[in-house]
Amino acid sequence: MTKKPTTGRDPSAKELREADRIGQLHPLQQKEHPSAVAADHSRLDHVNTYGSLPEYYIDQPFICRNCGKREIWKARDQKWYYEEAKGHIDAFAVECHACRKAKKRGGPNR
Fold it and tell me: How many domains does the chain have?
């Protein structure tokens, strides 16, 4: 039986603790962590910043600003957002999946 990849939605307490732990590691340790996803600077050519570009992405836990639910913005989703969707490099997740979905439907998350 293969393990289903996690999406960051409805993370277990263990997944949240691990994401918190990785976030507190030294950047060199984060870069070498198995869950880190390498950034492709050639795909970040749309970024116009004086700051440095990321070398890698790591899972980022966050609290939804609407409902207070904890989720994880997965490294592979960050890579897609920044490199494929051409999102702003300083943007980060602030709403959970359910609240974003409700906003797209035009109603409150219920």
Answer: 1
Residue 6 lies in a domain: no
Q: Give the domain range for residue 59.
A: 13-105
Maximum distance among all Cα pairs of the chain, rounded to whole angstroms: 47
pLDDT band at 9 (very low <50, low <70, confident <90, very high): confident
- For residue 5, what pLDDT band results from cuts at 50, 70 and 90? low
Burial class (CB in 10 A: 0-12, 13-18, 19+), 19: buried
Q: pTM for this one?
A: 0.84
Residues in the chain: 110
Task: Judge whether 41 lies within some domain.
Answer: yes
**DSSP for the chain?**
-PPPPP-SSS--HHHHHHHHHHHTS-HHHHHHSTT-EE--GGGGTT---SSPPPSEE--EEEE-TTT--EEEE-HHHHHIIIIIS---TT----S-HHHHHHHHHTS---
Q: Is residue 7 one of the residues assigned to a domain?
A: no
